[in-house]
Amino acid sequence: MAANDVFWQEGVGNAALETVARAAGVTRGAVYWHFKDKDALLRALFDELPIPLQQAIPPRLDLAQSWAWLAGALHKTVHSEVSRQLSGIMLLQGTATRSAVIQEGLARLRGHFMGQIQALLAHAVASGQLPATLDLEAAEALLQSAVSGLLYECLQNPGERSSLIHSVFDSLLFLLKAPPGHLLRQQA
Fold this sequence. Notes:
- By secondary structure, the chain is an all-alpha fold.
- It has two domains: 1-48, Orthogonal Bundle (Arc Repressor Mutant, subunit A); 53-183, Tetracycline Repressor, domain 2.
- It is built from ten helices and no strands.
- Helix 1 (2-10) packs across helix 6.
- The longest helix has 27 residues, at 100-126.
């Protein structure tokens, strides 16, 4: 937790393991005993700290329930101090530092989230909750862009933007249920 705080407050590029040790109340040697370098510590953070968006959607939920669960997971992600900081390190600091470890963590988070979106949409189409002609690839791209942008905005201004989460999710669900022509597959 101390490393998460230090990386968030000082930036990954500026943070020193000595500062992490001080914040954790241990010696610098103790930090180096467990972590070879800053990248190893970052990997441990990404592996061990929970981000609600990484949790699996509970099984047997219909589309509306799954959708509400996802909106809630995003809301928890930006309102939980630990997950907000960790997500911010990945999303806000990742491009500035060009850290391979941060890029890997972000790719895992994105891959997990998009895997859930793909499964949710495929199930909703198969069960008749969404149109059978929905272009799943286009819908997934739309959702990834919208949620990534929403997460980015909420991480920068959590108090000001978080009320948008449910509004944006409701709008996206409406769009999926009554998609415009460009979100439909062309009939052969």
